[in-house]
Amino acid sequence: MNNKIRVLVVDDSALVRKLLTRILDEDPGIEVVGNAPDPYVARDKIKALSPDVLTLDVEMPRMDGITFLRNLMRLRPMPVVMISSLTEQGADVTLEALEVGAVDFITKPALDVAHGLDEYARDIVAKVKMAARVPPGALARKARRLAAVTTEPGSPPPPPSRRLRTTDRVLAIGASTGGTEAIRAVLERLGPDCPGTVIAQHIPLAFSASFAARLDRMCPLSVKQADDGDPIIPGHAYVAPGDSHLMVVRDGARYRCKLSQEAPVNRHRPSVDVLFDSVARNVGPNAIGVILTGMGADGARGLKSMRDNGAPTVAQDASTSVVWGMPGEAVKMDAASHVLPLADIPTRLLELARV
Questions:
Q1: List 11, 84, 202, 244, catalytic entry
Q2: Can you name the residues that pair with 196 across neighbouring β-strands?
Q3: Of the listed 27, 104, 176, 278, which one is catalytic?
């Protein structure tokens, strides 16, 4: 009879547990069925209460959140939203949690809750509701599928000598929920002479530099957080800072990154639509657009603009997306010339770069 989303809150701070419980319980579609101060108590309560979604603190005593998450995904996969601190260490651990199998994350709420609580409440309620829609079986498959992207037989990236010039090409990628791992899976299979790549991922400023550094360590191309004026050159990728729109502008015979503090678009800054619109205007048919997993519709209209301006466009398919929101909206408006599983996207991008 009760169709509410059942949530277990796991956090070592009693104040944070109380605040998250109050926020989530105020939504008529959510019920907090329990809370736990550490993973050992959480393990017992998961067995007793069978929650639909877990909110999990990144940093906890007795057992860290990553170790607990790895065990959870191996033994009882379920949707998890990580609660992360706004620190460099918190960013690194959160990105690892997304790799392990967490659906999404949100920063830890400030305990002086008078400022910004309404927006924070909207965000965490939306993320919990979105996480509840992810089938647990898909979470177990996600880790296996992402690991297989780099090891699938028969589909290695072409050797550098077979790739054609990429100096005029710009690859634009947009993503949101699930995107940190999807972007990694794509970039890992693009070689050091791939087109200059610009990336808009919905992520806080405190996390975007760590995200770029993580990609740089794991991928063959050079990845950095974009600075205003950076030249866009082959073999390099530029991640939008978490509080700035990233745009591509032409500077004579080359392209450069332009950062903007203009108002959020689709409630996001960086916005994928802003990036894609700039690429459509300034790069036209020499661009390639990619929209990956994400909640909402940001980027769908911009991808359509890119396609209308002659660029090939790719959307991740529903079966491999954590959330088929952004790519699904793009497909609905005929913005994608190719709809592909995540594992097939890198090879197709290299093919399109040769055209």
A1: 202
A2: 170
A3: 176
